[in-house]
Design brief:
- There is one protein chain.
- This protein is an alpha+beta fold.
- It has two domains: 57 residues, Arc Repressor Mutant, subunit A, CATH 1.10.10; 82 residues, 2-Layer Sandwich (Alpha-Beta Plaits), CATH 3.30.70.
- It is built from six helices and four strands, in the order H-H-H-H-E-H-E-E-H-E.
- The protein has a four-stranded antiparallel β-sheet with strand order 2-3-1-4.
- Strand 2 and strand 3 form a beta hairpin.
- The protein starts with a helix and ends in a 13-residue tail after the last strand.
Amino acid sequence: MINRFTWNKLVKEVDHEISALDRKILRLLQKDASLSHAALAEQVGASPASVWRRIRALEQAGVLGANVRLVDPARVGRGVNVMLQVRMRSHAPDQRLEFEAFVQTRPEILECHSMSGEWDYQMRIVAADVADYERFLMREMLNHPNVATSASHFALSQVKYTTALPV
């Protein structure tokens, strides 16, 4: 486990290694990952070769992950967005690992966070409609042997959604 001092040191090291030019590249790629190296170079004031080298270095450092295209959930029949909180029956490491492996297999679970506080996990689930979510909750989630209870919160509308981190 990383203590606060070590974490702050790691964050400072990462911040120090990422230059102002890298940050410009990151901001642009978060808006449009399909930009060519030439287009990026023009916008950040560097050569295409330099941009290419910087992107490769950011990928190798784990700063940049996979290139993906974002899909509109409503347009593919997944317009219901649910925040699900789960409490475990036991906090034994093997049971947590088993539950987390189960979560990895469920495509309707877009995010899952291990939490501090009253609930053990917080998830974001997408479903076609309320009946679809109910089927998932009753047949899958609540049938899992390590789940004690849950609470569901339905999003009425999406006020803000971004995948772009402030860099």
